[in-house]
Design a protein that fits this description.
Shape: globular
Strand content: 35-45%
Distance between the termini: 69 Å
Number of helices: 2
């Protein structure tokens, strides 16, 4: 009996020691140390980047964590790790978390600042980016296009981040549906602050875009909820929905010169969103196109936009339209 108790205690101690080793913390001070730490990371590993400025660094963060033991890359102290110069972050694998990094004073040397994909088809699944900042991280050439955040793969989350001041061409956040590995993705974009984005003066200034006209009949199943859009006025489509079965819920739009636009795709739900225009020029609400859209319980106040920027617009459509133009509105449910 005593021997049995001894074995139970010994097993418990071994489990604690094993768990402690698995949940290792690796502190890194430069790019070479970061590359080595990522290559050694196991489920439960946390890699802490030393506070200060990290300049001209392209981070390739990859690995395979587990639901209970993700691999985490985070600031040693949140708000004190600055990614500057020509820098970016690419992620690939499963159950990865990035936390607390600030991108400022620079721009991406590639097509994305943060990409949930290392290369074509080498994507992220069940990964998360949280408490990060992208602040005026703009290419000096205004019409040189890049995307600040590109989501590929499935079941990823982008939450509690602060994005502000995008001035060059390109979407702020794009959900990419190229390839079956990124469709029916069930991504979450929630509790983010999208700060002022001035008018670009041309197409390509959306704050969020889900899909493109090439894959507009594919399901994305993305949920955009509880975000604050502050003077996001890059173009008429503040949010451009270009896929099926997405949800836009509990978001607030403050003095945005544009609309949630159901540009392509069907069976989208827009509910419990708030639009405050404060009588500013061109402020708008919701624009409906395509089939089986559901728009309920939204609140609009002080909006001045008309036509495409109306508080509420239903498009007439184009006769015999191809999918990438303007399909008629059919079977819409607009209520309350």
């Amino acid at each position: 009996m005593k021997f049995s108790v001894f074995l139970q205690v010994l097993c418990s101690v071994l489990m604690i020691v094993t768990s402690a080793k698995a949940n290792k913390i690796l502190k890194v001070k430069n790019g070479d140390e970061l590359i080595l730490a990522i290559s050694k990371a196991k489920p439960g590993t946390t890699i802490k980047m030393a506070k200060g400025i990290w300049k001209n660094i392209e981070i390739d963060f990859y690995g395979n964590g587990t639901p209970t033991k993700p691999i985490t890359l985070e600031a040693e102290k949140s708000g004190q790790v600055f990614i500057e110069g020509e820098s970016n972050l690419k992620m690939s694998g499963t159950y990865l978390t990035v936390k607390g990094l600030i991108f400022r004073n620079g721009y991406t040397p590639s097509s994305d600042v943060i990409a949930f994909q290392k290369s074509k088809g080498n994507v992220c699944n069940n990964c998360r980016v949280t408490e990060c900042v992208i602040d005026n991280f703009n290419n000096p050439e205004r019409f040189e296009q890049d995307i600040w955040v590109s989501l590929f793969g499935k079941n990823n989350r982008f939450d509690h981040n602060h994005l502000t001041g995008k001035r060059n061409q390109g979407v702020t956040v794009a959900i990419r549906l190229e390839g079956e590995e990124s469709r029916g993705n069930h991504h979450q974009i929630d509790h983010n602050y999208f700060g002022p984005r001035p008018s670009l003066g041309s197409n390509g200034g959306e704050t969020i875009r889900i899909g493109t006209s090439h894959n507009c009949m594919s399901n994305s199943n993305t949920v955009v909820s509880d975000n604050f859009f502050d003077r996001c006025s890059g173009e008429v489509e503040i949010i451009s929905n270009k896929s099926c079965q997405n949800i836009f819920r509990n978001n607030t739009f403050f003095e945005c010169q544009g609309t949630i636009t159901l540009r392509h795709g069907n069976e989208t739900l827009v509910e419990n969103n708030y639009f405050f225009g404060n009588r500013k020029p061109h402020t708008g609400g919701i624009r409906v196109i395509n089939e089986n859209q559901k728009v309920i319980n939204n609140y609009c106040e002080g909006l001045t936009g008309y036509r495409f920027r109306s508080a509420f617009a239903i498009m007439n459509g184009v006769p015999n339209s191809p999918a990438n133009r303007y399909l008629p509105v059919i079977n819409a449910n607009v209520a309350n």
